[in-house]
Amino acid sequence: MLVWGTDREVGAPHLFVRDCVVGVIRIRCDVAYRGTDFVGWARQPGLRSVQGTLEDALERLMGERIAVTVAGRTDAGVHARGQVVHCDVPGDRWERLPGRSDRTPGEALRAKLGGILPSDVVVRRVAPAPPGFDARFSALSRTYYYRIADDVMMRDPLTAPFVLWVRSPLDVEAMNRGAAPLVGLRDFAAFCKPRPGASTIRELQDFRWERVEQGPDEGLVRATVRADAFCHNMVRALVGASLDVGRGVRGEEWLVQALTSKSRVNSSAVVQPHGLTLEQVAYPPVDQLADRAQAIRARRMDEELLDGGV
């Protein structure tokens, strides 16, 4: 059943999903985290993961286990500023979250989570999800930044957990020229950690390097990498190959040569994870969410893809 509701964080009346049989409401949460002290997104027995931390907090508030679905699983040490998850929560508990306050349920849940989550995980926004929304399968793209300091004057101990330090200056123009031909639908086997039965074909929508001229990243060398989805270690392998070009160890044609080889042994080393941040997940208009999720879910099943970390 679709129900009209209003959420101040959305800013206008909107439809959200309620299952009248089991009383479930699907919600979207926008999450940021510092990946330094996590084994990655995915829950692992006895280890500290982002998924486990978030699900444990939701269980405390809802009184039952709440499973979350994520837009893209990140590896150990990788950060996120714009991660998106969805989960289905009991409708009666959702409606009781504000108590006697005038807050919306989303505002109340966000505040309560802020009171019990550790300092390296922040839920920035909670709201009922539109019809057909699936954090993973509805996504159009995931955008990552990789940050590098190649000048001793840019080596800041306060940002060191988020920026890779390299000792020699990088030729950013050469790196950018080397990266450009990889944009498009390609087989990225040379830049993916092999997984049995998993496709390595991806649509790389954007891959570029720049020396940032203004803003918080001013002076840093930064990669923007965007795709519909990534295979395991793909972003960090692309960055590692680009660094060889930037250092002058390889020519600009190196990335294309590695891509064409389809052989992992010919690609460069995977760089450290701490320079990588998931910045944004993009979704289609509300009326296209369900169709997008259905199409991508079917494609993943047909290709037997595994949703690998980056």
From TrEMBL:
Its EC number is 5.4.99.12. GO terms for molecular function: RNA binding; tRNA pseudouridine(38-40) synthase activity. The gene is truA. Residues 32-137, 180-284 form the Pseudouridine synthase I TruA alpha/beta domain. Keywords: Isomerase, tRNA processing. It catalyses: uridine(38/39/40) in tRNA = pseudouridine(38/39/40) in tRNA. Homodimer. It comes from Jonesia denitrificans (strain ATCC 14870 / DSM 20603 / BCRC 15368 / CIP 55.134 / JCM 11481 / NBRC 15587 / NCTC 10816 / Prevot 55134). Signal peptide: none annotated. It comes from the Bacteria. This is tRNA pseudouridine synthase A.
